[in-house]
Amino acid sequence: MRIYISGLYSGTNPQPGIGITRSLRQAYPDATLVGVEYSNRSSGIHWTDLDELWLQRPWEELNLDAYANEIREVLESGALWISGFDLEIMWLASLFPEGHRNMLTPPASALRKISKPAVEAHKGLPVRIPPFISTEHSDWDIHTFCRQHNWKVWLKGPYYEAVRIASWDAFEIFRSTLARAWSTEKLFLQTHVSGYEESVCFCAYQGELVEAVYMRKRELTEEGKTWAGDVTEVSEEFLAPLRRIVRELNWSGGAELEMVRDTEGQLWLLECNPRFPAWIHGSTIAGRNLPAMLVERATGVAAQKAEAVSEEFTRVVLEVPVRSQFPLPPLPEPFPGGIGHSLKHPSGSLALAERLGKLNIIQTNGNGNGNGHKGKAEKGEPQIPSSFINDLKAYDVNDMETPAWLFLESTAQSLFKSAQGLASRLSTSFVKVTNGYSIKTNPDERLIKLALESGFLAEAISLLEVQKALKVGFKPEQVILNGPGKWWPEGLLPKERLHAVFCDSLADIRRVAASMERGELQSKIVGVRLRTPNVYSRFGIPVDTPKALEKLVDAIELLPRDSAFGIHFHMASSNIGVAQWWHLYESMLRWCRSIESLAGRPVEYLDIGGGWFPDDWHTEDDDRFTSAVRRAPEVLRNVRQIISEPGKAIAQPSMALAFRLLEFDETEEEVKEAVVDGSIAELPMHFFQPHRILHRDAQTGEWRPLKRGKTQLLGRLCMEHDIVARGVQLPAGARVGDVLVFCDAGAYDRSMSYVFGRG
Ligand SMILES: *Cc1c(COP(=O)(O)O)cnc(C)c1O
Q1: Tell me: the pLDDT tens digits for 615-653?
Q2: Which of 360, 465, 538, 754 could be disulfide-bonded to 439 (CB atoms 3.0-4.6 Å)?
Q3: Is CATH 3.20.20.10 the right assignment for the domain spanning 409-651?
Q4: CA neighbor of 158 nearest in space, from 114, 116, 110
Q5: How far is 413 from 410, CA to CA, in rounded Å?
Q6: Which tens digit of pLDDT belongs to each residue from 34-68?
Q7: What's the CA-to-centroid distance between 495 and ligand 1, angstroms?
Q8: From the CA of 645, how far away is ligand 1's center (Å)?
Q9: From the CA of 652, how far away is ligand 1's center (Å)?
Q10: Domain at 386-405+653-752, CATH class
Q11: For a pocket test of ligand 1, which of 147, 415, 441 has the largest count of ligand atoms closer than 8 A to its C-beta?
Q12: Pair 21, 45: CB distance under 8 Å
């Protein structure tokens, strides 16, 4: 008996070749085990159970046709082949589309049905697939996906590699790194599932399930790989559908279904690997030698029975002698641009991926729209609200000096109007719902004026902002003062009564109490801002220890009783995610109730801050704001007014930024780089959120959104990081001098833009 085994890499993220070899050696002491490798850097080639080595040229140099013929001869001679390397398995499947009796790997059609992330073949198993989105969607949709899933997402490559993503700029960087490394744009984002990691490993021959085991990870490496585990039986609930699927796929070879069990006990399928897992010898230790059972089924040669030694296994690190024919190579040169797997694996996965991609052999995650994700967009084209285009038509861009800020008037009007409408619809005779416009978000007078006309209060974080609100027409009794620096600059505090003042610290409470006692400050409401427990914030007064709570309650005692008491909290849902924000809201309501009873001050006013991304704020298909408003008086029985303080939710869509294409090679078929006259100085939020970009056809005047593509838009600044868009496509007719409009720039892009590079 002669068995070829590939996938011998044996670092901290190992391939299964060594485990397969050990298990086969135990069952077939006299078999000839041949190790197959593509790099002399794979330490597994020195494993003593291997009788022979078949070391190939690296994948980038290998003559694939000649190698394929040699493999055919090997199989025809009666030898078996067990692959431990996914990409090799895909290539082998292209050589043997219908399989080969001695090739113990699955056929091509089966591989397509287990490809990530949808894993079509999971149907019938008691598992679910975590929501995902292909990165071929528009950046706008991808950002939505991340917010909706609380920024607990993984960026995954089509074959290996997963990077945890917590912010937009990290996403942009890793997307381009992974795309370059694996020569594909077909990456995807998938939500993180918290829970315990479990696997079902099985082997099958020509569609017949031979054996399956269930493994729970009991110890993990930093990369999340198994270091210890226990192996038991697979439940019949799982086995029955698995048997059917194996038959439908006509599976041959080993396989592993990697899953996470969440706190409610639901299993989530992360991937289905077309090979044995690296811990496979752990199963042999538990008395189930899957590689041997596979070989026994394929050849009819009885394997020596495996003795169950223990249900639990763990790993150790071993030193083994280096084979004298294969002395250690010199240290490798660092591979630039690789991360994780692609950096560490010496077996040429990246090179093989590139070759297979060119040969059209590998199937990537072209299955587009993830489950649970709405908003399909063809070729990454973002949806543009029609009011943007209508507002843009009011501008004569031909003679416009760029970069230029464009106020989208009807868009802004309708946003304020719908906020006003919602507040009045939600108000009852007991609880009034009011909007406050956050001035700092964009202090443009046109927006402040719209806020005034739409029944908003003005929310200010400095006395200069208060003065600006008064100048536009607000009365002091319509002003809310908030934040840690609100008394700056001295001497600008209005004499009249304000609507509300929220204290940001214990010292601030004492200052406010004293100033009110002296008659310098008058306010209908005085209150406190609470620091959110569990979610880091530098603002507000902490409540998360008994001591801190006691100090707060004592300080509240100082606040005059002839003003009403209120509580404010603010945490940007655009950063922590929408679901998490609502969870926080519930918890804040309970904190408010504790403070109410401990301080003996009814909470009559609740101010829930801003921080919403426009698309997440009071959307039509999400009536959670309504339920939040209904919920508040259930927990806080004295509440009379609920104030919401949208800043960017309203301001962000209200302005756009016009740039001009300064230079690109118009003769190039696929433009890689184009320079614009704008920069990150005008788009400081570029690192935190995407912007939908429109191109204006100079001939027809038509506005079209940019799709996903291969062009980078380089800013005019001489700064390495001044790249205002990555992965977009200029339309075919684009010319130097054309106008591009970056939408969604009306919030902090506008207010925080700076003057740079203008002499
Ligand atoms: C900044 C701010 C807001 C508005 O936040 P956005 O992120 O612009 O929505 C609301 N309330 C307070 C107290 C703020 O400081």
Answers
A1: 998 776 667 788 889 999 999 999 999 999 999 999 999
A2: 465
A3: yes
A4: 116
A5: 5
A6: 999 998 889 999 999 999 999 999 998 999 999 99
A7: 25
A8: 6
A9: 12
A10: mainly beta
A11: 441
A12: no
Rounded (5°) CA angle 212-361-94: 60
Delimiting residues of CATH 2.40.37.10 domain(s) in the chain: 386-405+653-752
**Which residues are CB-contacts of 374 (< 8 A; sequence separation ≥ 6)?**
none
311 — phi, psi (to 5°)? -75, -20
pLDDT band at 368 (very low <50, low <70, confident <90, very high): very low
Tell me which of 437, 438, 537, 575 to substitute to probe ligand 1's pocket, judged by most ligand atoms within 8 Å of the beta carbon. Answer: 438
* Binding pocket residue ranges, ligand 1, CB within 6 Å: 438, 440-441, 459, 461, 482-483, 570, 572, 609-612, 645-649, 747
- Looking at the chain, the domain(s) classified CATH 3.30.1490 span 131-191
Q: Which residues of the chain does CATH 3.30.470.20 include?
A: 2-124+194-319+345-358
The rounded distance, in Å, linking the Cα atoms of 752 and 28 is: 71
- Contact assessment for residue 16 and residue 275, using Cβ atoms and an 8 Å cutoff: yes
- Tell me what pLDDT residue 371 has: 38
The residue assigned the tokens 């040969």 is 359
- Cα of 437 vs centre of ligand 1, distance in Å, is 8
Which ligand 1 atom sits nearest the alpha carbon of residue 440? 1
Q: d(Cα 563, Cα 528) in Å, to the nearest integer?
A: 13
CATH code for the part of the protein at 131-191: 3.30.1490
Q: What is the per-residue pLDDT for 376?
A: 44
Name which residue sits closest to atom 11 of ligand 1, judged by CA.
Answer: 609
* Residue 159 pLDDT > 90: no
175: how many CB neighbours lie within 10 A of its CB? 21
Nearest CA to ligand 1 atom 7: 611
Dihedral (Cα; 389, 390, 394, 395), 10-degree rounding = 0
3-state secondary structure 553-571: HHHHCCCCCCCEEEEECCC
Number of Cβ atoms within 10 Å of the Cβ of 736: 13
**Which sign does the torsion angle of CA 165, 166, 168, 174 carry?**
negative
Ligand 1 pocket mutation, candidates 645, 655, 744, criterion most atoms within 8 A of CB: 645
Taking CA 699 as the corner, what is the angle to CA 695 and CA 700, rounded to the nearest 5 degrees? 75
Q: Which atom of ligand 1 is nearest to the CA of 645?
A: 10
54, two tokens: 């078949």
- The runs of H, that is alpha helices, within 636-673 are 648-651
**Would you state the structure tokens that stand for residue 733, as one six-digit string?**
């007719």
Rg of the chain in Å (alpha carbons):
32
Helical residues (DSSP H) of 233-308, grouped into ranges: 236-249, 280-285, 290-299
Nearest Cα to Cα of residue 141 among 365, 380, 385, 386: 380
> Which residue bears the tokens 């485990």?
19
What is the amino acid identity at position 175?
R
Per-residue pLDDT reduced to its tens digit, 385-410:
999 999 999 999 988 999 999 999 99
